[in-house]
Amino acid sequence: MTGVGQPPDQDCIFCQIVAGQAPATRIYEDPQTLAFLDLNPINPGHCLVIPKTHHVTLFTLDSATYEAVAATTLKVAQAIQSALQPGGMNIFQANGVVAGQTVFHLHNHLLPRHDNDNLRVEVHGLQPAGVEQLEPIAERIREQLG
Ligand code: AMP
Ligand code: ZN
Prior knowledge:
This protein has 146 residues and is an alpha+beta fold. It is built from three helices and five strands, in the order H-E-E-E-H-E-E-H.
């Protein structure tokens, strides 16, 4: 069952691509999701996977839509890996301006990686935190999980 999302946004370039009103190099689609090549690829095969319904970020997404996006991400990532044989791949998603989001329709980046491609993706700090710092943060998150 597809999540309802918001109605298509006339000003959203990815909604326009879904509707066939804007061009895209399409790779794969199913009733809930679409995969197409990024217009400004970091490396060859740089691909985006989106839900066909308009969701700005992950924060309001229903699990059925997320599962559909995840399944297409897996399928297309494996196809890129077989076709182009990059050395590795990052899956990246920006939610919100401060996270680097520039197109406000949820999308996963599938980024094929190569030795010395000069792309720096850092997802860890340099200093370990103590349990006294970790535990209060964990507790605040657990409270929201119920
Ligand atoms: P983000 O910064 O995570 O929101 O990434 C948005 C991505 O969408 C960028 O990598 C853009 O190159 C890409 N993009 C923007 N417009 C198009 C388009 N019309 N077709 C394909 N990719 C696009
Ligand atoms: Zn949209």
